[in-house]
Amino acid sequence: MKKQLTAITLSLGLLSATYTNVLSENAFAQQQEQVLSFSDIPESYWAFKEIQYLKDNGIVEALEGNNFMPNEVATRGKTARMLVKALKLDTNVGEVRKFDDLKSTHPDFDYIQTAVKANIFSGKDDGTFGADDPLTRAQMAKVIVNAFNLQGYSNKDFKDIPKSDWAYSFTSILRHSGVTTGYEDNTFKPNNPNSRAQLSAFIYRALTNEQVDVIPTTDYKKMSLEQLRETYGDYKILYRKIDEEKGIDEIVKIDMVERLYNYLLSRPNTETTPEEYLKQHNQGSLSEMGQFMDDKYPYYDVFVIGEDTFADHPETQWLKTNYGTTPIRQLKLFPDKYYYLTFDYQNFVNNILPTRPNSEDGVLIDIQLKSKHFPIYTKANITTDEFATKSYKVNQIDMIDGYSLYKNFGNVELEASRLVIEVNGHTLSLTNGDKQATLDGNTIQLSVSPEIQNGTMYVPVLEVSNKLGLYTRSINEFFRIEVSNQIIR
Length: 489
Hints:
14 helices; Mao_N_sf; S-layer homology domain-containing protein
């Protein structure tokens, strides 16, 4: 009986051990599967194979947690790291070359020095390396050709890279080697930055000699975020949000193409086309932004919808027709005061909101006196910047960070206690605490003195702008001032 019990006990023990081993193997397999794949790179991703290959070979690594972050811009330092790992180079080389902006504590220092020693990178003409700067496609062509010693020239040129361009030979070799064929319109776009996914694909092809198809792919479900932008445009919404009581002063960006990209990733079987998705969300966003402007302007101020200003958007006519003149509403001037006005939407869009300049060199700055953020309107683009702080008043005169404003129109230098501005052929020299200024060599008198606070010179914006021959427009009821180098409507 005792022997039987012992046998049963042994059997159960072996069974338990076997079961435990099976569980351990299954857990290990699951753990390995998790380790082998990045959380944000599904198998349906256009560069899954390339990124996975580099990961398996220890060439790429996650940026945050287990996320590869494929749409992040590839920097020069991280590119050096990837290429050195791909070539399995010894990184114990010390400081091969001293760069003014590269410290030994930089995480990519050893890889950069190794890449320099291997003649993959050479640094910049000004003595810097720019480890955290984006790597352009032209620079990428050069370092990949250097790293893998690629040779031979293509008999077909990219139409946006003439033979006189420094990158011509590198892009021609890259094309001949089958690492790239460029875009469908036979351009290479040499000045565009690379994403981490794009760079991974290029390095993979150089390593494996696998030929590449024309990019972007015509299958929008397999496109990268960059390819969707190239194909469907950079559709975004930008608006300024202010809440003085809560201390909120910020620019909010809604990236509709990124939303499209995430939508396609999460719904690979969708029948909705990018055109349908963007059109549907375009109409919804326009209506929502119109309601924002109607209810909360100027505390919600929409700069950009798609690639247009709010006023210039082709569908804003629909809003003007449907909203017309709204009932009298309360507009909060200060935390404890209210002010009533009739909000005429047609007049608001036609005459109040800023529009893009007509000329190629035209610039318009829309200053919101309650915010440090401001949009910069040109004929080709709409960007944003910020002052050191928002404006303030001296004797009821609005004072603005002069350097941040006038650098958009010409050359500006802050020298100790002086601000020198060169705009429209005029040179204006302003001195801290002095009403006397010098304009084109002549002494002039300002109504208030410029003031330096925390290294920033604040100037009477309307007066200084007019002295420089710039055009200005004040919209007092909405706390706005426009400054432009062309006539404002």
